[in-house]
Each structure stands twice: as C-alpha cells, then as structure tokens.
Amino acid sequence: MKKSQLKQILKPLIKECIKEVVFEEGFLSGIITEVVKGVSASDSLVVESNKEDEEIAIKAYEREKNIKAKQALNEHRKRMLEAVNKDAYNGMDVFEGTKPLSSAGGQGQDYGAMSGRDSADAGIDISGLMGKRGAWKALIGK
C-alpha cells in the first residue's frame, strides 16, 4: 500500500474522530473556557501594569514639573535681584566695609557659650597641643 492510499483512507476517519471528540464530548467548550480565562487574566494583568505605569509616569511628570517651576522661580528671583542691584544706589555697595554685629540686635543680650565674644575672634590655637609630648608632660607635672 502506498502512502497516498493510506492517507486517503485514514484522513476521513481521523477527521470524523476529531469532530466526535470535540463536539459530542464537550471538549470544545473546555477549550473555549480555558481560552477565555487566559484572555481575561492577561487583560487584568495588562490593566494593572498599565495603571502602575501611569502612576509612575504621573509622579515623574509632577516631579519634573516641580523642578522646572523651582528653576523658573529661582531664575526670576535672580533676574529681579540683578535688576534691583544694578540700578540701586548708582551701583554702590552700601554694605562695603561693615562688620556683623557682635550681639543680636546690638543690645548685648546674647545667650549661650559664646555670648559676649566677638565673632571675628580666632580664639586660642590648640593645633600644637597634641603634637608635642613635652607640652603634655608639663601639663601633668612630670
């Protein structure tokens, strides 16, 4: 028997068997149910990931918008200060040669460890204290 003859005999038989299994035994409804479940599950996953992506994109957009707004505000402030300083007092620096006050408000009512001290005072140099052994021996009396 040739291959083509066998094919002609078996093909109709196999077709009939497949139709019988698919339609009569309910196999097709099971396939459809599984496909629908798979499609609905993948749709919900896609929707959830799209929502997450949208939220991330919205947050990134708002962050970028805030950064741009801050940059625009800083640029505006800079231009305003330049405009005021350029024309004010005929370009003269009114604080030239001044020093900060030694006490708050000039009233002498500072509170704290450094109250009453000049802010420009360098204090005592203690850099050589640790480097010399002789200084420590002299301090402890040996």
Molecular structure report:
With 142 residues, the chain is an all-alpha fold. Helix content is 64%, strand content 0%. It has helices spanning 3-24, 27-87, 133-140. The protein is elongated, with a radius of gyration of 44 Å. It starts with a helix and ends with a helix.
Produce a short descriptive summary.
This protein is mainly α. Helix content is 64%, strand content 0%.
Proportion of strand residues: under 5%
Through-space gap between termini:
121 Å
Mean residue pLDDT: 75
Helical residue percent band: 55-70%
The ordered string of helix (H) and strand (E) elements is HHH
| Rg measurement, Å | 44 Å
Which key terms come to mind for this protein?
single chain, 142 residues, mainly alpha
SSE topology:
Blueprint: H1 3-24, H2 27-87, H3 133-140
